[in-house]
Amino acid sequence: MLYIELIKLWDEAVRAIDSRDWQSALTKLNQITEHNCRTMFVVASTHIALGQVDLAIEALDQVIAKDSCLAVGFFQRSAVHMMANRLEEALADCIWAQKFMRENPVIDYKQLGLRYKMYSWQVLYNAAAVHSRLQQWDKAREILTAASQERGAGWSNLIGIALEAISRREVLEPLLVPEGEVFRPRKQEVDQLKPRDFLGEAKVTRIFTLYSCFKSCLEINYKMQNSIIVQYMTFKHKIMSLCLFVF
């Protein structure tokens, strides 16, 4: 598959997602024959929005197979595994996501085309959510307490609410990348899809008609005749002057 074709379908799918036309987005994505990890993430996000959990997990499996160090891929799959009640797999994904954050408090995926910042506390929150589903309340509280020491947008309110829920023995809902936030193709690559006019617009500087051409020829001919007559008269005058001088 040509790379330009992939960019075109990818861009059309993202535009459909922006319009919340998930089925049209999926139709475009299914036309891509050679996915990369970012386009497969878009596929997974589309399946999640459509409530197709098993298909979303399959897509995320491919995301991670194509980039085994993509922390946000493990984070997203941990949440979907919880939705499918696959708790052991969900907990394992949280561990891998934390590992590939490489002790960074936050990873900004903007440069890769995803307008999303993933914080370490969010990964810990999902791990606590798994333990809450396993009814391991003490472990969930311990992880949330550790998460409260992290820094990042929105952590204080959410962690506080989660700790209160755990004290009431309530199961926590997993965190996901917000709906509609997907990897997008680079703007420069999308711009290259637009037709270019390398020659520019044609500009008419002068219109030549048969009459104007004929007129121009007559003017040139007239000027040439006048020039010849002037040269002849000059020459004749010189000859006559010379003859008068001799006689």
Structure description:
- With 247 residues, the chain is mostly helical.
- It has eleven helices and two strands.
- It has helices at 3-18, 22-30, 37-49, 53-66, 71-83, 87-100, 120-133, 137-147, 155-167, 187-191, 210-246; strands at residues 106-108, 117-119.
- It has a two-stranded antiparallel sheet.
- A hairpin with an 8-residue loop joins strand 1 (106-108) and strand 2 (117-119).
- Helix 2 runs antiparallel to helix 3 and helix 3 (37-49) runs antiparallel to helix 4.
- Mean pLDDT is 85; it is low at 207-211 and 242-247.
Distance between termini? 100 Å
Strand order of the largest sheet: 1-2
Outline the low-pLDDT stretches. Answer: 207-211, 242-247
**Portion of residues in helices?**
55-70%
Number of helices: 11
User: Secondary-structure element order, as H and E?
Assistant: HHHHHHEEHHHHH
Subcellular location: Cytoplasm
Main location: cytoplasm
Organism: Cyprinus carpio (Common carp)
Keywords: Cytoplasm, Repeat, SH3 domain, TPR repeat
